Amino acid sequence: MVEKTDILILNGPNLNMLGVREPDIYGHESLNDVEHMCRDRAQLLKMSIDFRQSNFEGELVTIIQKARDNARGIIINPAAYTHTSVAIQDALKLAELPVVELHLSNPHAREPFRHNSYVSPVAAGIICGFGSFGYILAIDAIARLIDSK
Ligand code: CA2
Q1: Cα 39–Cα 75–Cα 122 angle in degrees, nearest 5
Q2: Is 115 part of the annotated catalytic residue set?
Q3: Is residue 108 lining ligand 1, measured as CB closer than 6 Å?
């Protein structure tokens, strides 16, 4: 039997460009820096993580489908797919795992097209507007949800 990862941390399109452009909105850290922060925090909580990024909606759906059997909780920054993807909402619903929705920026303080999220209805909670620190908050939140199950 394959050992489960505790937390899948999934990042959507363009987040591989973190730190390269728009640091005023998304901060100066690269996604690699964020992954290291996450690994440190998870280790402190004795949790394992699988940290992933994809620019492709179908690939994100496939990763979520696999998490159903391979993970105990999901943190997702769906990036632009937050505002468009019924497929990701369906996959998260099918996964039947606790989900934390995460954003670096506060989408509600930005353009109106960012105010709707297809992920929020299937998330246990949402963390947004705290930059990369949000990943730490999200790990603490999902760890609590996993432990309370
Ligand atoms: O604030 C967030 O984390 C977002 O999920 C980021 C998405 C945006 O579409 C959502 O509304 C909010 C955009 C990710 C783009 O990432 C970039 C990284 C570096 C430079 C430019 C964009």
Answers
A1: 170
A2: no
A3: no
Known active-site residue 26: yes
Q: Mind listing the pLDDT tens digit for each residue in 57-87?
A: 999 999 999 999 999 999 999 999 999 999 9
- Is this prediction's pTM over 0.85? yes
Fold entry, domain 5-148: Rossmann fold (3.40.50)
- Given 28, 36, 103, 118, the catalytic residue: 103
Q: Whose CA is nearest to atom 9 of ligand 1?
A: 80
- For the segment 14-72, what is each residue's pLDDT rounded down to a tens digit? 999 999 888 888 888 999 999 999 999 999 999 999 999 999 999 999 999 999 999 99
Going by alpha carbons, the residue nearest to atom 7 of ligand 1 is 79
71: left (phi over 0), alpha (psi -120 to 50) or beta: beta
